[in-house]
Amino acid sequence: MQAEDKKRVMDLVDKQLLKEVLEQALQKGGDFGDIFFEHKKTTAIRCEAGRIEKIQTGVDIGAGVRVISGEATAYAYTNDLSREGLLNVAGIVSHAAAGGKNNVNLDFTEVQPLVEFNFKERPGDVSTERKAAVVEAADQAARAVDPARIKQVIVGYGDVVQQVTIANSEGDYVEDERIRTRLVVQAIAASGAAMQTGYEAVGSLSGFELFASEQPALVGEAAARQAVNMLEAQPAPAGRMPVVIAGEAGGTMVHEACGHGLEADLVQKGLSVYANKKGQAVAAEEVSVVEDPTLDVRYGSYRFDDEGVPSRKVNLIENGVLSDYMYDRLTAAKDGVRSNGHGRRESYQHKPIPRMGNTFIAPGKTDPAKIIRETGTGLLVKKMGGGQVNTTTGDFVFDVAEGYLIKDGETGPMVRGATLTGNGPEVLRIVEMVGSDLGFTIGTCGKDGQGVPVSDAQPTIAIKQLIVGGTATGSANGKIRRI
Hints:
Blueprint: H1 3-10, H2 15-25, E1 29-30, E2 32-48, E3 51-69, E4 72-78, H3 83-94, E5 99-100, E6 109-110, H4 128-145, E7 150-168, E8 172-191, E9 194-204, H5 210-213, H6 216-232, E10 234-235, E11 239-245, H7 252-259, H8 264-268, E12 289-291, E13 314-318, E14 321-322, H9 329-335, E15 343-344, E16 353-354, E17 358-361, H10 368-375, E18 378-389, E19 395-407, E20 410-416, E21 419-423, H11 424-429, E22 431-434, E23 439-447, E24 450-458, E25 461-468, E26 478-479
Parallel strand pairs: 1-5, 6-8, 10-20, 11-18, 17-24
Antiparallel strand pairs: 2-3, 2-7, 3-4, 7-8, 8-9, 11-25, 12-13, 12-17, 13-14, 15-16, 18-19, 18-26, 19-20, 19-21, 21-25, 22-25, 23-24
């Protein structure tokens, strides 16, 4: 962080007050205590019906205090950052603690990150007019694709500047700043009684420089073309068939059907199909699954998690073998390991839980075009839609937002109405080819009432057989993300 930015974070609290608050929180016992301060400024611009409908900015400031005692957690939060307000919430959580408190260290030492990110154009330095121009450019480009059939375009711009201070009873002290910027376009096309929707989103851990690489007009055009093309698409066939998921479809499949099941809290509660399977083959040898929040500018990246643990790359599945889970401090203590930096929270109003950041299937060595040629006949998925997954069983149903038939090893006509039904672990076992490409998508992942920014990705992969068609049924433990 630049010096002036660091000062803003430090202005939230002084270390002596941190010490008092943690002493109050741990006065009746507890194995671990921490405090999380947040200052978050947001900007949102919405364009609908061809005009800017809303420009909204806001600031949210608050703190949360937590005490862990055994396997129990007490958490309270406040937006009253006075000494009295903070000591009050500390006193509340202290009543839930008992025993422990053997290794308390309040001589704070600043934790150093393992990775640094550079924000080149801070949102606060960009005028509202420039931000609105991005929205208008996306809207106009979308409408120009087919003025007669594009009936509605909704464009949303958003940026978040989040500054946090974290301190705990182990003596760790962290200051961090996260800046995220995004643009979302939804286009609706209609012809007669037929109506179709296109959706496109871009975003990153960055400032306004996002739009140096992601042109707003191209984002709007992509959403509109998807909607218009779907009007001409033929109904998707139903039945079991080979499926190729293109890299450009992003990693919705791996995020939902695999990633949530590798979060340690679900594993420990017996709500994951991957429980007690470390060291076992859970996927084809060609499949490796990685969780890496250290990737530069990705939407789910971060220097520290929300417990002050430096982010790092974690190999979850290596050459088909389950090697690790995603841990926060609480679940790591239960398994007798150290947190690998995946304790995340939506805001100071939420306690941290194990969450994904950037989750992806690692690229292989096969040319994506060769994968389509060798598949011969089946379904090519270029964009995933919504759906649901049961993390306990791994069963899933996903909508296909953009799909094509594969005929004689070539990409054929576009189809609509396709769904993919299967079981996550089974699908990973029957992946036959893994491409050399890698495509990312972004979203907000929902879990336990909290939403956090994520990216997911995969290369082009060939799946031996999936059920195409049908309707979405079953329980939704993992929620599909939309921004």
